[in-house]
Design brief:
homotrimer; 367 residues; Rossmann fold; 2 domains; 4-stranded parallel beta sheet; 12 helices; globular
């Protein structure tokens, strides 16, 4: 219950574990704010998977596109991006356009009232005066939570969608990554039982951190956590995997694992989190996937990357059918659209439209 | 008549009083450009009040929202904001979205042709080639007028809506302030006869300057003009109040007036108008409204603020039912939507739609 | 055929002549990417002329506007403008709005993933994940071509519309210039046989370079190429005119040619292409059109300018009926809308709608 927030101070709230915070981000047992990947369970992931597939299918016709655009034209979303972003920003924006949601941006603090000394809380409340959603990326950890806390205490709580905050949380990326993995194995027996190689900067890559946790919902999967020593997966994730009795392997080698991987998830060195003299090396050539490796990969191996990439992923791979990263990128748009319809309850209308179409076409609604 | 502008030079035009300029901003006895609060009369204020209420009511249903969005989808508006703004910008933009008006922005001179040496007049004429409205904020006083003068002399005059120019004029803020005041007293006998306490930087706060003048349309209201000595209300407004035989009191005290106020309008020190070494003090603690004052306020006192605020308005007040500033902010969106439909004549369609709804519902159209 | 691009390397492709590149920018004999004015032939120009006129006419009614907005609401366009632009940007954006196309912008590299080291090709492929068009302006010559080459080799080729790249190409400006010329002579026997005076910086003005070439499709026209010695028309254009056996005159005088001109196309010194110490003079007063010249111009002379202007075109001329530059500017919006419907095949729906209207109105569809 959002309104429970009135009974807890901000500092007490901050001290809660992600698990304990969950109820404050839900309403009537349903996701309201989307802030952490810890809010997701298998049922949610399954629902979003199905919904994303249906939205993609519906949008293939002009008629279907118009149905989708007719769902939420009376909704307005604020894209509040206080950090550079191309993919997350554009995919959220185009997801809104698919659903008919009107958008506005604040991407530059110098043209807003923050230059007049406005507090973060007042900025967020102001957005809530005009919009039905706030989609926000912020360099400061915990700001998305603070926005949710502030709105829960106001007369107009509206959903906060966390589009990346600080080093840790980027929950919609986790959703699209899981979606892409599952979609890649749709005709190959599903994600269960597959071996996933995560490679690169596992310490600071928020996508691989979230993915490692969500993968525990899929019994029988195995993780290979392959990174340079200085960027190995942090202890909290390792403990989580242990607790869930996951099969995993920590490794500082890369190439030797390629033949056994059903999916390879590459990441780049997250050096934007480095500051000043603490600049790390920009790349680790031994953790690069190159065209010459293609011959040793499995025939149906799914190659993924959250993008942008640098030299850790050879662009000569792009046209190989196993390269899924461009689709992964595009999936971000569909999955974010699915999430927004779920939060507002419009997913029900989509399900019912799809079921009608399937009845007419006399084919199965099981997508 | 706009076309009369052809017979007067820019320098002669500039020398006219606001009263004398009014006819140049009207067409067929109807507001065309919205530049000064001096253009408004009681009839106009009453009409916008009613219209704003109706638009709010209609928009509550999806069906109503779609009706509103179907009104002006063939209109395009330019949001030309050469100064930082959050509220005015976002409320105009979302007002456009409510009416289906398509928008574009120019908020950064460095990405437009002004960097190639284009004059202000050419920039404005260019906007008139593509848009049906120009909504503009400019740091230079008189620029909105100059834009209107320039377009009146062109083949494609389109309305200029002044969203704040220089230190003086911000007419749509005045509209939403009056709206919020009246709305706050809707069930308490109306604005007439009420005591309004204006507090803070009355010298440079353009909102309190405009409000003081518009309040003269409401017989029996009393103004208390409470400010530090160095920021007291300017002589021109005082003379205007005298001329209208208004009941007012100039005071450099604040707290002692709180118990008698039906509405309290707080403002912040407008130090963005200070330059260089001339920086004033940033705040005057004795002109701050704090949570501990709530107990001495009237039960139905309306607390307002144009926002953004600093320490002159304690955020601990936010959840008190008498705090109206977040609603005031949101009213800006509805009131600006009302203004745009009025200027274009689409208010008639709204009135007729509303009257149909009321007939069907068998309730009164008197809102 | 776009797919032929797979068989040619980028460096071999770059070495091709514009003529040889044409097939790579077409699909099924139809324009796909719009990159060079060399892609246009008389048939194309005639079609766009007719289509532009029809779109203008249809849009005059609200019903017609709604028909146009209903054409492509399921399309999304990326406006990727890496150089300052007002007119080209706004006219493309409003053209999209006329057709119901949803837009997004990238106008500032500092808020996109380029700051994280993303390559140009990856940026373009990313846009192709979310959009149906890329409308791009880039300071680097050949970047629009490189974008097209890159997408032709991808799984999701989408049209690139070149909105100005480097010093040379700005094909949609050429389309609107030819449109405006023809429209100006609609009631005066058409463009054929007319004398066109091009004046100013002919060396670096990409609009006059393109226009000189397209004018060769209109038999009997004569060009007067009037410029300061240091900015005279480059040899490649002169050779092209010779090859096409055009009637033209190269002159370093201006005023003496005014009485014979049916159209005067003024340009400003393109000093944004100058760098550092190499700054040229900013203006050449003897190549300026001033109000005092109006008396020696032909009665139906069309005065044009691509804008923005400086002192080479006296603003006192603006209200003369022969001044066509504001219309020219507005024509950019209609002509770009026409181009986008042509590339996507939606021009057929427009033609058929128009033909129905004409049947109903019992007037001729010949516009």
């Amino acid at each position: 219950m959002l309104s429970e927030t009135k009974n807890i101070t901000w500092s007490d709230f901050q001290a809660l574990s992600p698990e304990e915070k969950k109820p404050y981000f839900s309403e009537n047992g349903q996701l309201f704010h989307c802030l952490h990947s810890q809010q997701f369970d298998r049922e949610f992931i399954d629902h979003i998977y199905k919904l994303t597939n249906i939205i993609r299918s519906i949008s293939k016709s002009k008629k279907g596109s118009l149905f989708l655009q007719g769902l939420m034209p009376h909704y307005k979303a604020m894209l509040y991006f206080m950090q550079p972003s191309t993919r997350t920003y554009l995919s959220f924006r185009t997801a809104c356009q698919i659903l008919g949601i009107q958008t506005s941006d604040v991407r530059d603090a110098s043209i807003s009232s923050e230059v007049k000394g406005e507090t973060f809380e007042d900025t967020i409340r102001t957005f809530s005066s005009y919009f039905n959603f706030i989609i926000m990326r912020h360099p400061k950890e915990g700001y998305a939570e603070q926005a949710a806390y502030c709105l829960n205490n106001s007369e107009r709580p509206i959903p906060i969608l966390n589009a990346g905050s600080g080093k840790d949380q980027h929950p919609t990326q986790a959703i699209l990554d899981i979606y892409t993995l599952r979609r890649s194995f749709e005709h190959y027996g599903g994600l269960e039982g597959k071996t996933i190689l995560l490679a690169g900067d596992l310490l600071r890559g928020r996508t691989v951190r979230s993915l490692s946790k969500l993968i525990t919902f899929f019994p029988g999967t195995k993780l290979i956590l392959s990174s340079p020593e200085k960027f190995k997966m942090a202890e909290d994730v390792i403990s989580f995997l242990d607790e869930k009795q996951m099969d995993y392997e920590v490794s500082n080698e890369f190439i030797k694992h390629l033949p056994e991987a059903d999916a390879i998830y590459m990441t780049r060195v997250q050096d934007e989190h480095d500051t000043g003299s603490d600049k790390s090396e920009k790349s680790f050539p031994e953790f690069s996937l190159r065209a010459e490796h293609l011959s040793i990969l499995k025939e149906h191996c799914a190659i993924m990357h959250p993008l942008p990439r640098r030299e850790e992923l050879d662009s000569a791979i792009d046209n190989d059918p196993r390269a899924k990263y461009w689709r992964q990128e595009r999936n971000g748009m569909w999955a974010r659209a699915a999430l927004m319809t779920h939060i507002t309850g419009y997913d029900k209308k989509i399900m019912s439209y799809w079921s009608d179409i399937c009845k007419q076409a006399n084919h199965t609604a099981d997508i």
